[in-house]
Amino acid sequence: MTNQAQIQVDLTLDCKGLACPMPIVKTKKAIETVQAGQVVELQATDRGSLADIQGWCKNTGHQYLGTIEEDGVLKHYIRKSNADEVKPETKFAVTMTTEELQAKLSGGDAITVLDVREPAEYAFQHVASAINIPMGELEGRIGELKSDAAIAVICRTGTRSDLACQLLQDKGFTNISNVLPGMTGWNGPTSKLN
């Protein structure tokens, strides 16, 4: 008997082939359709969905049970929490546009650009000066960043970077901004695979 056979799933959500933020968007809608205590299985192929779903659960109070990988599909298990356990979802308050970031970089401002996407996403195109620490590794690698430095956090659409900003703030970082709408709106200099 496999571990999966022991997991009672009340709703299966197919997000295979979808990139951030769609697995989270679909999970938010799906979690509203089940009862407290029921389990949603989110099937995704986006490697970043692991950090995304863990961060979203931590942010909302729903219980992240775990993830099983099978044939390249990540199966995330989320238990809907009782109403008294659920936290209102928050968004990180300090943001900047991609244009504002480009102006700061062009003007020579001392700012660290932190790209929290997966390594493959970063490799194919990223802000020229950005460093890459994937969201799923951020907590373990937080020592690579200066807590008092100006940090602009970027991802593909602003969802994963929002969660990263909240994590950094919880760890004492004081000068961080979420870059919106992320790489989907970036028109400045980039580095990428040739």
Low-confidence stretches are: none
Query: Which percent band covers the strand fraction?
Result: 15-25%
* Main structural class: alpha/beta
Q: What is the element string, with H for helices and E for strands?
A: EHEHEEEHEHEEHEHEE
Number of helices: 6
Largest sheet: 5 strands, parallel
What's the mean pLDDT score?
Answer: 93
**Could you give the count of β-strands?**
11
Q: Which word captures the global form?
A: globular
Order of strands across the widest beta sheet?
5-10-9-6-8
Rg, Å, rounded: 17 Å
Provide an overview of this structure.
This protein is of the alpha/beta class and 194 residues long. The chain is built from six helices and eleven strands. The strands form three sheets. A five-stranded parallel β-sheet has the order 5-10-9-6-8. β1 (11-15), α1 and β2 form a beta-alpha-beta unit. The longest helix is centred in the N-terminal third of the chain and has 12 residues, at 49-60. It is globular and about 55 Å long. The termini are far apart. The model has no long low-confidence stretch (mean pLDDT 93).
Walk me through the topology:
Blueprint lengths: L10 E5 L6 H10 L7 E6 L4 H12 L2 E8 L2 E7 L15 E3 H9 L5 E4 L3 H6 L1 E2 L3 E2 L2 H4 L12 E4 L4 H12 L5 E5 L9 E2 L3
Parallel strand pairs: 1-2, 5-10, 6-8, 6-9, 9-10
Antiparallel strand pairs: 2-4, 3-4, 7-11
In short:
With 194 residues, this protein is an alpha/beta fold.
Keywords:
194 residues, alpha/beta, five-stranded parallel sheet, four-stranded mixed sheet, 6 helices, 11 strands, globular
